[in-house]
Structure formats: C-alpha cells, structure tokens
C-alpha cells in the first residue's frame, strides 16, 4: 500500500472527519451523524460458504447510529479513498456492498440456527429453515462513499449503466443499476465547502486550488 493511501485511510478513520463527509453527502452539511455514534468495524468482507472464497477489504467501514426526528436509524457507512480515477468503480463498490449484505445474512442465519429459532409445520417455516433467515429478520443498509483526492477531474463512470455498451431502454429497464456516491474537490463550490465543519474542508480546498 502506498504512503498516500495509508495517510488518507488513517485520516478518514477519524470519526469527526468521517461523520463530516457523510453529513455533507446525505444531509447537505447538517450535523445529523454524530461522531460519537460511530463504531469502526472489520473491513474484511467475503462470500461466506463459497468454495472459492472471495474476500475484499474496504478502506474504512463504520456502524452508525443516526438520530433524527426522534427516530433511530442503524446503518453501515463505508469510505473508499481514491487517489486516481477508477474506471470500474461502480462494480467495485457494488461488490463491497453485496459482500457486506451477504455477511449480514450469514451471521443472522448462523445465530438463528444456533438458537433454534425455527418451528415446523408450514411452508413459510420450511423456507425460513432452509435459508436460515426468518421472515421478520432485517439487515442494515450499507452506504458507500467514494472520496476522490485526485487533482484531475473524475471522468470515470458513476453508474453501472454508464459501463454498458447498450442503448436499448426496454432492455435496461430489467437491468438493476448501481450508482457511485462521489465527492470530488474539483466540482465543489465555495458554498459546498462551507458545508464541511472539520479540516476536511481545507483538505478539499487545497486539492482544488
């Protein structure tokens, strides 16, 4: 791993900076995500139970407890730092997210089986037993932010559809899309910079100017 990658990874591990980035992305700079409500978790994700295990390592992944309008939301927030444009970023981030969802399902299923939370007698219960996942089980949403620290404008695709060589809208209606959530300094205005409340503002301004 290069020095720049290590520096950006350690920088984005800081809860205040991490929360600042997501508050800009999701809430337009409003301080909704509290740094104190962030917990760093294992960045390793793998396809559980597969013969040839696929394992990926995110840059930073944190569990977040977000309180807004007296309601609590529990989500997983991931950051991918990029010094260069990645021309397959939609696929890369989608794999990270899919593996994280797979990991959640596998952990819930293992806990259900360990505690024998199944009953027999109905088709639904048989389905729960086979999958290990109960009808009432829920998983946490995953949001991945790509933070681009490069000095050249990002010219890579920001969605799966941009990577296809197909223009048939009828066909594409049946192909799920996946979008990259990107922050890049070159496109930020002074009003945008004011929505950051940590040193991330100065870092992004320095890159732009």
Structural features, described:
The chain is α/β, with parallel strands linked by helices and 209 residues long. The protein is built from seven helices and seven strands; from the N terminus they run ααβββββααβαβαα. It has helices spanning 3-13, 15-27, 89-114, 123-131, 169-172, 190-193, 200-208; strands at 38-40, 44-46, 55-57, 60-68, 71-82, 142-148, 181-183. The strands form two sheets. A five-stranded mixed β-sheet has the order 1-4-5-6-7, sandwiched between helices. A two-stranded antiparallel sheet has the order 2-3. The longest helix is centred in the middle third of the chain and has 26 residues, at 89-114. It is globular and about 65 Å long. It starts with a helix and ends with a helix.
Features:
209 residues; alpha/beta; five-stranded mixed β-sheet; two-stranded antiparallel ribbon; 36% helix; 19% strand; globular
Topology record:
Layout: H1 3-13, H2 15-27, E1 38-40, E2 44-46, E3 55-57, E4 60-68, E5 71-82, H3 89-114, H4 123-131, E6 142-148, H5 169-172, E7 181-183, H6 190-193, H7 200-208
Parallel strand pairs: 5-6, 6-7
Antiparallel strand pairs: 1-4, 2-3, 4-5
